[in-house]
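ugh finaly. both done.
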Amino acid sequence: MLNVQSVRQPKCFDHFRCIGAACEDTCCAGWGIVVDQQTYEKYQSLPARQIAGKDLSALVEFYDARSSSRDYARFRLEEAVCPALEQGVCAIQQTLGEPYIPDLCSTYPRSLTVIGRTLERSLHLSCPEAARLVLNDPDSMVLQERVEEEPLHRSGSVALIADPDDSLHRVRALVIDVIGERSLPLGQRIVSLGFVVDKLAGIDPADAVPILEDHLNYLRQGLFPDDLMAQRGDAAFQLETVLELAIARIGSDYTPPRFVKCFSDFLVGLEWTADTSMEELAARYDSSSERYFLPFVRRHEHLLENYLIGYIFRTAFPYRSKLPDRKFSIDSRAESLRNSFILLAVHYAMIRTFFIGMAAMYKDNLSVDHAVKLVQSYSKAFLHISSFEKSVIEYFVPERAGQAALPAMERAGQAALPVSERTGQAASPAIERVSKIALLVMD
């Protein structure tokens, strides 16, 4: 049992209940399902047992790329579906009970991380019911802390991060305050994070706290840099970037049908065809943003904020770096912080861009249910795919992959540097990078 003194979680966490066969996008399909070593050995030691008409021991196989006891084996999927799924529910759990399902299946969509002496619990939004809980309630991501004598969890499903003085929590609390600072548009809040995260490189989280406090005070006093206040989003760059990244992801692996439907709505809404010019798409995109997306977001400001807060809390943004056996480290290297910010901004930008296209289709009928469907299906299709994260970093930092910048990035480089244009001085790599992100996330 892990030695924890408290539990920290969003308000919505305790309200989650799996809805089983009623779920519109089961977690038993659409991705690989890992089996921990202890559960695998249970299966092998059982007398011959039929599960969903098959021998239980034959449903799993060794995972050649395993890195720890947690991903020791995998289920043999049948057309991207777990072979134990029967009439919408897990036949293993129905037949043998919860102790016989893998750690992953027992925990999901819950995410469990011990940071210092605190167990942090959150929800993955790739689950439809979790996404509804987080996105429907404006107060769902209010963090609560309490003492529990023996928090219930499987030890193999808990990630570990050393944080003896609670500095990581204080850093994230300030980052979340930046995201919640509604005196600025959400895109500007994200861009401001890019600049302040760059200042945290190479210093301990405890020393990062006053830097973030100062940054938040500057924002609240209206001292946002004039250069960034003058920045505007670039519709063509947003569309080109998102389409390039999305099409590469969709073409590389199985894509859940629920996201494919959202992607189709996005394309249909913008009246995209092979003959459509980027100028025409950008004009329709800007029109949809002004007429439907922005008014909707103003009525439901919490939607995208809650998505971002959940991401920041769950991923220990901006520091988390993966180690073996469910352990993580606080990584304050400049490259790690840069990559964390790029991933946060790009995931947000992709959701936002798809939603603007969907808004063009649904117009005044655009609803919170559409937002839930998009965020959930996007999360399932993109947030659990490590190869996609690698592609994003290589796209925005092409020199890291030893390749030339893609066309959209080359064009962005011409428009993203207001400082250098006015002063004639070369912008720093951090300013250049964040300026490009500004083109991607701002209205």
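ok and the 2nd:
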Amino acid sequence: MSFTLNEMNAKLDEPILSGLKVANLECGSPLMGCSEGTREDILKDVDEWSTNFDAPNILWVKGQPGVGKSAIATDVAKHFLSLKRLGSDFFFQRQASEVMTPNALWRMVAYNLSLRYPTIRSRLVSTLKSGDVSPTTPNIDLLFRHLIHEPLIQSSDIPDGRLPIIVIDALDECGGLDGPQSKHRRNLVRTFKSWSQLPGKFKLIVTSRDESDIKELFSKTDHYRIDILVEKSSVDIQKFLVEQLREIAARFTQLSPDWPEPQTVKRLSDMSGGLFIWANTVIEFIRCGSPEPRLRRVLAGIEGSGDLNTLYETVLRISFGKSSTEDIDNVLRVVGTTILARSPLTLQSIARLHSLENSTVEYICMGLQSVMEYEDGLRFRHQSFVDFLIDPDKCPSKFLIKRGDLEPTMCGPTPPNHRQQLEKVPIVIWTFFDL
């Protein structure tokens, strides 16, 4: 086996550069991306901006919750990876806010750049050897300058066709439930201002909701903006619904291959109000039960276009509407733990933490299948469901997660045979009172 000089240098440099990596951090996209044939106009706009080095070097992809920003970011990252222009991607998740910090972001970006650009790798190795900055420093401005700004500025030999593009999804989820008040978020916003001072050939793509601190950032920072408008999404949502409903129909011999009829698909598209997350939640809800009666429930039970709150309430009432008080308490414990865990916990871990049977937690997860994934750890499909659960103006009191009723604890004594397993999971669990 023979190695190129670049490959040999990379192997020699790895022990030094490995200090940039953040242990146990999964920061890639958890999504598959957009359905084929959808979002083509947005992707074309992104592509044109990426090759215009006279344009602002930051692209802000803005949209309200549920319009499909993360799916678009996933496809954008895949596209630039295929062109060998993806420098790094980082998908923030609110439930992992304790580990998905600005420090972790820029360390991972620097590490990924070192893997793909030899000149940047050389600069980073020199910086780390000199001790000018420690990867673990809490000084994010210093970290950004030494690991990102200076290596990029000093890398003038990168061909135009391979210039790095960084994709950062869900800026609004940085800082967790504290949101704009989070110190992490304030620190990260400052580094975006610093990025805007880099030459236009170094591109940064950011997706987020239109939250106050982010809006203020971009009001004072030169950038190019793409608005994801719900009123322009209906055609793409209809394509998505047709594709997904055909897949569901194919599983049943008693359903027509083109079930349901086109006018029903059109009605669902209209009901979505341009929100992909509404359409996706409906698809998962139908997929998790008998298709025809579940479709009828959706059509009969939800008024108003794009009404996520009513849709989420419908999911909860159908699954747990007739449950006992004890069962509802268990639902709230499982849901609340999932919201506040630093990283996704397995079904079995949550059962042990709350002294529940595995089958009890599995029953709760099955009832939440349309809004939750649980095969490799419990996580909600979209942040808007969490927003719904903790908002007393939106969520029925029966299912409301009250942040004021939470206190940090390990949920009582930890059994000795389980303590070692818990120590391997970087989490903070909370006990629920007066639920």
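summary for the 2nd one i guess: The radius of gyration is 23 Å.
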